[in-house]
């Protein structure tokens, strides 16, 4: 993986974690708002419930998309290794050599 790809993956991971925190906080606010009476609070409560539901759906969609991309990458990697076994062995040996050299320092 390139450095840019790794940064994008970490950025996506951070966004998903932030969405989880936002979802948990929103659900807690919704639970606390349930005890407060009033017309304005009812409208706020309904809007918050709509946002929480939308956020849950978005998070679920993001997780599904990430799982599909991971699965596709795994299938493509396996296909490459099966079609190019000697290149795969060479790449693995090169990576092992570099990691070994770094670990020896």
TrEMBL record:
<keyword id="KW-1133">Transmembrane helix</keyword>
<keyword id="KW-1003">Cell membrane</keyword>
<dbReference type="Pfam" id="PF19029">
    <property type="entry name" value="DUF883_C"/>
</dbReference>
<feature type="domain" description="DUF883">
    <location>
        <begin position="17"/>
        <end position="65"/>
    </location>
</feature>
<keyword id="KW-0472">Membrane</keyword>
<keyword id="KW-0997">Cell inner membrane</keyword>
<feature type="domain" description="DUF883">
    <location>
        <begin position="77"/>
        <end position="105"/>
    </location>
</feature>
<protein>
    <submittedName>
        <fullName>Membrane-anchored ribosome-binding protein, inhibits growth in stationary phase, ElaB/YqjD/DUF883 family</fullName>
    </submittedName>
</protein>
<dbReference type="InterPro" id="IPR010279">
    <property type="entry name" value="YqjD/ElaB"/>
</dbReference>
<comment type="similarity">
    <text>Belongs to the ElaB/YgaM/YqjD family.</text>
</comment>
<dbReference type="GO" id="GO:0043022">
    <property type="term" value="F:ribosome binding"/>
</dbReference>
<dbReference type="GO" id="GO:0005886">
    <property type="term" value="C:plasma membrane"/>
</dbReference>
<keyword id="KW-0812">Transmembrane</keyword>
<dbReference type="InterPro" id="IPR043605">
    <property type="entry name" value="DUF883_C"/>
</dbReference>
<dbReference type="Pfam" id="PF05957">
    <property type="entry name" value="DUF883"/>
</dbReference>
<dbReference type="InterPro" id="IPR043604">
    <property type="entry name" value="DUF883_N"/>
</dbReference>
């Amino acid at each position: 993986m390139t450095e840019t790809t790794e940064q994008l993956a970490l950025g996506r991971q951070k966004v998903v974690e932030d969405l989880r925190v936002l979802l948990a906080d929103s659900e807690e606010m919704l639970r606390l708002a349930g005890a407060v009476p009033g017309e304005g609070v009812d409208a706020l409560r309904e809007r918050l419930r709509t946002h929480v539901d939308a956020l849950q759906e978005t998070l679920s969609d993001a997780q599904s998309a990430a799982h599909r991309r991971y699965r596709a990458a795994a299938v493509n990697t396996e296909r490459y290794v099966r079609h190019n076994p000697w290149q795969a062995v060479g790449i693995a040996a090169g990576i092992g050599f570099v990691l070994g050299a770094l670990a020896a320092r």
